[in-house]
TrEMBL record:
Similarity field: Belongs to the ATP-dependent AMP-binding enzyme family.
Any single GO CC term annotated in Swiss-Prot or TrEMBL for this entry: cytosol
Named cofactor requirement(s): Mg(2+)
Domain of life: Bacteria
The protein, known as: Acetyl-coenzyme A synthetase
Cited PANTHER family: ACETYL-COENZYME A SYNTHETASE, ACETYL-COENZYME A SYNTHETASE 1
Domain AMP-dependent synthetase/ligase: residue ranges: 88-472
């Protein structure tokens, strides 16, 4: 196991019990959790079967699980539709209830009742059908945080088209890679999106991507920013115009429980992002269960998750898990600091948000901005706070709890991954005491362990690798088009268990603390990025001969990106140009914080780049460990002194 890259040492030893008021109204008590958790492991068929039966199935399942390691089938033989369960199922009791309340960066507000959202999704489903989209086809969605992104996802799910949402901050190149890997023929995008008051040109990125996507036949373009964009006849259609004469009645298609619901690309330790495949039934059941339990959902909650729908958090806890529960979801389009650092708190006040789910990087940046920003607003509507995406340091946890939650709102620190589909480790807010910096205990049906590199289970407080010992309903089914990579990366690293890629430890009370990734995956502001991806982007610049990218601890972003670069003989290029190049190749989230140039990179005699040394250099540490295998020791001095 590599050294801990994130300073997550617990100096904070306080525990926080849920208040008597919270406990009294909570969905689950500690006894409920203990009883149900035991049942979920001892009798999973009964446990999962009873959760699943709260939802609608066109045909009942015959078996809860068929496990043929590493391939799982959940609710075998069952037929359902997640969009039906998220919308139609609520029409009777919640038709007029607000499903989505949306605030644009420019302050515009739109509200969709469950009935209206259902109507819009039915029309969009009919539009997709009229364009020849069939069950099983892939559709790529490249949209900002506007209601149409949820409508497009649900319309795909309704007809059984597999969606692939690409984060709007990704570049044309990253978009093209995902269109090609998924084999999509249709792209849904927008003219542009607003970010810090400026227009992000989504359509022109899409046009650029389309130059290298031979499969792509059509583009549907949502009007958001209104600037003129070229429309290619025969290929491009306006979303609003195309929907005008489309009927708003549509019967949701009964789909096999294992029908592919979506592909979401995420970074791994190679240069190429992997397409994580989620299917319908198990994902539906587990996001429904966890959304209700972890966020203690009540009928009158106004729930706000600040994640973009381009990430898994947006899939599971902006769209699917929440609408499956009939919740009211707030969506915000823009930047957290626009027009100023008070924007989030103004939104909480204006919409009377009761549950807020955000990322440590945002919490740390608000903490830095000062208490005067939240102090200007009335945050008394809040009753529960959540954190996701990276380890939260105890200092940020305490600030969130006290300054935002007024000391009365439990904080749930939820550990999970794109691959897991749903929350895996957390506390339940009315059941468990919380320990700042520690995510908590396993959710129902999840059986984790901490093991050493050989797979031997370790005891309390011993640091090791986090694994999951049995399949769960919302787990990824494969890497799209690459069963072998799925098998070897997730179920082959340590035999017969799911390998998460995180380092962790468990304390004597059974609470898990996540230390961070142990592979070549960085976590920058809660976003996963492969070091190899950034390296490939750098070496695609003509001046660059070789590049090595490492993370270094960053007080706000969790990790920052440092790139070590050697240039082609005679070539000259500045750090800023290379940073801009990476931004163009992948997206702004991948832009290195620092570029250091050298004549060579430190390598072993067998030619492997010594990343351990580079990490120490990047964070300004003393060089530790064995350097005797280094080919050219002079290189180290150069890397340390060149800035
Ligand atoms: C949901 C999501 C997954 C990686 C994961 C881990 C880190 C997520 C965390 C956390 C500590 C938490 N991570 N939640 N680390 N505490 N509560 O973020 O998915 O983008 O796939 O990232 O994020 O390292 O392995 P994804």
């Amino acid at each position: 196991m590599s050294e801990n890259r994130i300073d997550n040492v617990l100096h904070e030893t306080r525990h926080f019990e849920p208040s008597p008021e919270f406990r009294a109204q909570a969905r689950y008590s500690l006894e409920d959790y203990q009883r149900l958790y035991r049942q979920s492991l001892e009798d999973p068929d009964t446990f999962w079967g009873s959760v699943a039966s709260e939802l609608h199935w066109f045909t009942p399942w015959q078996r809860v699980l068929e496990w043929n390691e590493p391939f799982a089938k959940w609710f075998v033989g069952g037929q359902t539709n997640i969009a039906y369960n998220a919308l139609d199922r609520h029409l009777q009791a919640r038709g007029d209830k607000t499903a989505i309340v949306w605030e644009g960066e420019d302050g515009e507000v739109r509200r969709y009742s469950y009935r209206e959202l259902h109507r819009q999704v039915c029309r969009a489903a009919n539009l997709l059908l009229s364009l020849g989209v069939q069950t099983g086809d892939r559709v790529v969605i490249y949209l900002p945080m506007i209601p149409e992104v949820a409508i497009a996802m649900l319309a795909c799910a309704r007809i059984g088209a597999t969606h692939t949402v690409v984060f709007g901050g990704f570049s044309a190149g990253a978009l093209a890679d995902r269109i090609n890997d998924s084999g999509a023929r249709l792209l849904i995008t927008a003219d542009g999106s607003y970010r810090k008051g400026a227009v992000v040109p989504l359509k022109s990125n899409a046009d650029e991507a389309a130059q290298s996507t031979p499969n792509l036949e059509r583009m549907l373009v949502v009007r958001r920013t209104g600037q003129p964009v070229p429309m290619q006849p025969g290929r491009d259609l306006w979303w609003d115009e195309s929907l005008e004469d489309v009927p708003d009645q549509h019967e949701a298609v009964a789909l096999d429980a294992e029908h592919p619901l979506y592909i979401l690309y995420t970074s791994g330790s190679t240069g190429k992002p992997k397409g994580v495949l989620h299917t319908t039934g198990g994902y539906m059941v587990n996001t429904y269960l966890t959304a209700g339990a972890v966020f203690d959902l009540k009928e009158d909650d106004v729930y706000w998750c600040t994640a973009d729908v381009g990430w898994v958090t947006g899939h599971s806890y902006v769209v699917y898990g929440m609408l499956l529960n009939g919740a009211t979801v707030l969506m915000y389009e823009g930047a957290p600091n626009y027009p100023d650092m008070g924007r989030f708190w103004k939104i909480v006040q204006d919409h009377r948000v009761t549950i807020l789910y955000t990322a440590p990087t945002a919490i740390r940046s608000f903490m830095r901005a000062g208490n005067e920003w939240p102090a200007k607003y009335d945050l008394s509507s809040l009753r529960l706070l959540g954190s996701v995406g990276e380890p939260i340091n105890p200092e940020a946890w305490i600030w969130y709890f006290q300054t935002i939650g007024g000391g009365r709102c439990p904080v749930v620190d939820t550990w999970w991954q794109t691959e897991t589909g749903a929350i895996m480790l957390t506390t339940l807010p009315g059941a468990h005491a919380t320990k700042p910096g520690s995510a908590g205990v396993p959710m129902f049906g999840i059986e984790p362990a901490i093991v050493d590199n050989e797979g031997h289970e370790l005891g309390a407080d011993e640091g090791g690798l986090l694994v999951i010992k049995r399949p769960w309903p919302s787990m990824l089914r494969t890497i799209y088009g690459d069963d072998n990579r799925y098998r070897s990366q997730y179920w082959g690293e340590i035999p017969h268990v799911y390998f998460a890629g995180d380092g962790a430890r468990r304390d004597a009370d059974g609470y898990y603390t996540i230390v961070g990734r142990i592979d070549d995956v960085l976590n920058v502001s809660g976003h996963r990025l492969g070091t190899m991806e950034v390296e490939s982007a750098l070496v695609s610049h003509p001046a660059v001969a070789e590049a090595a990218v490492v993370g270094r601890p960053d007080p706000v972003k969790g990790e920052g990106i440092v790139a070590f670069v050697t240039l082609q003989t005679g070539a000259q290029v500045g750090g800023d140009e290379l940073r801009a190049h990476v931004s163009k190749e992948i997206g702004a989230i991948a832009r290195p914080d620092e570029i250091r140039f050298a004549d060579a990179l430190p390598k072993t005699r067998s030619g492997k780049i010594m990343r351990r040394l580079l990490r120490q250099i990047a964070s300004g540490e003393e060089l530790k460990g064995d350097t005797s295998t280094l080919e050219d020791a002079g290189v180290l001095e150069q890397l340390r002194t060149v800035h």
